[in-house]
Automatic annotation (TrEMBL):
SUPFAM superfamilies noted in UniProt: P-loop containing nucleoside triphosphate hydrolases
Gene3D superfamilies given in the database record: P-loop containing nucleotide triphosphate hydrolases
Organism: Nocardioides lianchengensis
Protein name: Adenylate kinase
Length: 180
């Protein structure tokens, strides 16, 4: 299958997990937008690449392939890449479940160490997603972006098991193949 898919949603909605599963099921490469958004540092996620640099890297390394799955959010900087997609999958999740997932992930990443200032700031940012007045990446901004897309969009509740979600995306992607 030669399909290029973008899986997006709120942080903690499971876009990376599902993206890896779909890429595996389709036997195509997977990448996450964060791989291009952030400069590799230790600790991670402290230095952003400039948008032009992100796009250049994506266009050099990943996008030219005939098929791929890209997870994460490129809201506000990646429309050039989304234009190369055959379809977009938008994952939603109950905010309480999503935030619990994020907190568990952060605890795992920190090896059980207490939450530091950077983690607290990240979790506060992630909580803002469902607030209609939030100025960052939010459900409202995602919905507006989706409404403006000229690509097919599949909406899924990521509370479902990953294998069920993966099967739904693979079936949907097969239907995109007939679209001209």
């Amino acid at each position: 299958m030669t399909c290029r898919l973008h899986l997006t949603g709120a942080s903690g909605a499971g876009t990376t997990t599902l993206g890896r599963a779909v890429a595996g099921a389709l036997s195509v490469p997977h990448a996450d937008a964060d791989d291009y958004f952030w400069v590799p540092t230790s600790p991670a996620y402290v230095e952003q690449r400039e948008p032009a640099h992100r796009l250049r890297l994506m266009n050099e390394i990943f996008v030219p392939r005939p098929a791929w799955v890209l997870s994460g959010s490129m809201l506000g900087w990646g429309d050039e890449i989304v234009e190369r997609c055959d379809g977009v999958v938008f994952l939603t999740l109950d905010p309480e479940v999503r935030l619990a997932r994020l907190e568990a992930r952060q605890l795992l990443r920190r090896g059980g160490a207490p939450i530091d200032d950077a983690t607290s700031v990240f979790l506060a940012w992630a909580r803002g997603y469902d607030d209609p007045g939030f100025d960052g990446r939010s459900r409202v901004r995602h919905e507006e972006w989706l409404d403006d897309l000229d690509r097919p969009v599949l909406r899924l509740d990521s509370a479902l098991p990953v294998d069920v979600l993966c099967a739904a995306v693979v079936d949907w992607a097969a239907g995109l193949q007939g679209r001209a």
